[in-house]
Amino acid sequence: MAQRDLNIIVCVDPRSCLSHYSRGRNGQDLLEKLRQVAQEEGLEDRVQVTPCRCIFGCTYGPRLDVAQRWSGEKALYGTSQGRVNISRRGRVDMNQIPADLSKLLQDNLPPSQL
Ligand code: FES
Q1: Among 58, 84, 94, 97, residue to substitute to test ligand 1 (most atoms within 8 Å of Cβ)
Q2: What integer pLDDT is reported at residue 107 of this predicted model?
Q3: How large is the average pLDDT for residues 89-97?
Q4: 30 lines ligand 1 (CB under 6 A)
Q5: Is residue 114 domain-resident?
Q6: CA nearest 54: which of 82, 83, 23, 78?
Q7: What are the pLDDT digits (tens) for 2-59?
Q8: How far is the CA of 28 from the centre of ligand 1 (A)?
Q9: Is the minimum distance from the CB of 55 to ligand 1 under 6 angstroms?
Q10: Confidence (pTM)
């Protein structure tokens, strides 16, 4: 199978991210909704959404990380926006999970070639 443009891991660890909410959605809700949005937008071949256990930054959970395979960059998402300190990973730039998860996908896919 060809490499996807985005690999998204969504924390569904019951120690924190299943009981933390972003705009009414916990980690499990975000996992399911991201998969749904990717499918609705015909991006299943370009976007992989996978559940995971703790990826640190639980305080800002629910947490998810987006690996841009096309650029080598990784974006961290949670309930805060800006530079924060998280355990093990240190000082990182956190992005707030948008209400519109389609925007999260579009913000991380490669720019369209016109
Ligand atoms: S339990 Fe989800 S990031 Fe730690």
Answers
A1: 58
A2: 96
A3: 96
A4: no
A5: no
A6: 78
A7: 789 999 999 999 999 999 999 999 999 999 999 999 999 999 999 999 999 999 999 9
A8: 12
A9: yes
A10: 0.95
| In the block, residue with structure tokens 């991210």 | 17
Amino acid letter for position 77:
Y
Domain that holds residue 74: 6-100
Q: Is residue 112 in some structural domain?
A: no
Number of domains in the chain: 1
Please report the pLDDT score of residue 2 as a whole number: 74
